[in-house]
Specification:
Structural class: alpha/beta
Number of helices: 13
Low-confidence stretches: none
Helix content: 40-55%
Shape: globular
Radius of gyration: 19 Å
Strand content: 5-15%
Bound molecules: phosphoric acid mono(formamide)ester, norvaline
Number of strands: 9
Largest sheet: 5 strands, parallel
Amino acid sequence: MLSWRPELYGRSLLRLADFSDEEMLALVQLAIDLKARRRAGIRGDLLSRRHVALIFEKSSTRTRNSASVAIRDEGGTAEYLATHDIHLGSKESVKDTARVLGRLFDGILFRGFKQSTVETLAAHSGVPVWNGLTDDFHPTQILADLMTVQERFGRLKGLKVAYVGDGRNNVANSLMFGCAKAGVHFVNCTPDALSPDPALVREARGVAARNGAAVEIVSDPRRGVAGANVVYTDVWVSMGEEAQKEQRLSLLRPYQVNMALMEATGNLGGDLIFLHCLPAFHDCETAVTAQSGALEVTDDVFEAPFSKVFDEAENRMHTIKALYVSAMADLSAM
Ligand code: CP
Ligand code: NVA
């Protein structure tokens, strides 16, 4: 039995605030149900003859492939459209592209730069649109994160998540809202120069308050992670911000997630996990780490038993499938 919410049919996800707290949690539950269904060997046809366009201005491993596998698993198709493949924003306006794709596809997932692009696609396509990351938000990522936390702890409300690093990026912004909506205490550990937009923090604090939680911005990472059940980090230089690399590295080196910081939670060996949306610069073989060594997280943390980053990566697929199923499948007979 799938937890189905008819009011989610046809709905877009441009940022987490687009869903009520209950709707967001229902999507996480639906993703858990769909994961169990897939583990039981069921590849159904919930999305039979449904077609999605995947528009990508930025590169992607997880989001692109999750978005593609999620629909094929349930009998639909996906068309990957890199911006050099289509006219979007160059020879054709975003509004016109939206109106064309909306005639052909049942939904559109967009990854790119401006939040206004995904909003324009949603306003003019006439089909559900999902934000697969913009400069401002990464809401589909946070559904997978909440799912991973729910799987590990069996609950969300009352837990504490400490995000450590670039406090004003897309992941930090969306994680703040996801935690606030789920009643999770959220601490953003970041230098003052990278603190999030005060208007967003005010909005998130309002959401957190109605769920008995809090949103804190703390510049001392050791203080911020104390009592945390989840330590979360992301890259120090997001896509499109490469020009700021040197400045970011010097600001964020004290914010590296290493074993000493995990110990500062006071929960090592107990109720503690590490999450990272990935890709990650640990001591791995990449062009960047060959020069710099580990950046935002050390290898011993990344590879530790309490690191759930690959469960989190897998859960991108189940949560995107939950978005598709809730927005495009007719589950009324189930
Ligand atoms: N976490 C995430 O969005 O990964 P990709 O950039 O590989 O899609
Ligand atoms: N903040 C990162 C997230 C990557 C999934 C970026 O935007 O590059």
